[in-house]
Amino acid sequence: MRLSGKVAIITGAASGMGESMAYLFAQEGAKVVLTDIQIEKLNIIVSKIKSQGQEAIGIMHDVSDRNTWFEQVVPTAMEHFGSIDILINNAGISVPKPFEEQTEDLWQKTYNININSIMLGMQAVLPHMKEKGGSIVNISSISALTGMAGPGSYTASKGATSAITRAAAVDFGKYQIRVNAINPGYIMTPMSEPHLTNPQYKEYIKSIVPLKGPGDAMDIAHAALFLASDDAKYISGVNLPVDGGTTVQ
């Protein structure tokens, strides 16, 4: 198992890509600390993982709140499992709205959840990763690599995610902490499904994705597994598109 003995914190783990990561990481031997604001859904996932003989705990978590990171999430991980080896900053939001209609409140909310949370998460785990190293994986987007119409605040926050990943990779390298990002393309999740299953949008996706369709959440989970594992022990500071080839055009 590729994560045997490792302890992984995964945010936004109650659905979509985070849920897939939770199951895959646990199957690969990790003890998983799962966080989300959707605590009922999260508790079901934790129960499923435990029923398979794997170790998991769930925490209700507003990722934009500093106190929850420092006083609950990280202390709970340390109390239950004694170390933190992996952090997956997955939680995020997107509110499609024409650029000229986006408000400062929407901008601030998007930034709080999509990028401030990453800063807080990395700060919170850093003292516990310094001694023996670790792996941090931030979930960005292909919108950080290309221009995309629609949610400008989301695109800006994901650009910041990719940038802070590179900066942290340089800063944390001396501690043998690797920091990488994944840039998902069109991925079928509960949040995106209404758009991706629309017949007109499906044809559009086929026209712009070389592999002729969307990916699924497990595609992102496997990429995260690779970057989190020792298979990627000499990889740091990358932004890895998982997008069916969309961004090479």
UniProtKB/TrEMBL annotation:
Q: Which InterPro entries match?
A: NAD(P)-bd_dom_sf, SDR_fam
Q: Pfam family of this protein, just one?
A: adh_short_C2
* Domain of life (superkingdom): Bacteria
Q: Which UniProt keywords apply?
A: Oxidoreductase
What family does this belong to?
Answer: Belongs to the short-chain dehydrogenases/reductases (SDR) family.
Identification of the protein by name: 3-oxoacyl-ACP reductase FabG
Q: Which organism is it from?
A: Sphingobacterium kyonggiense
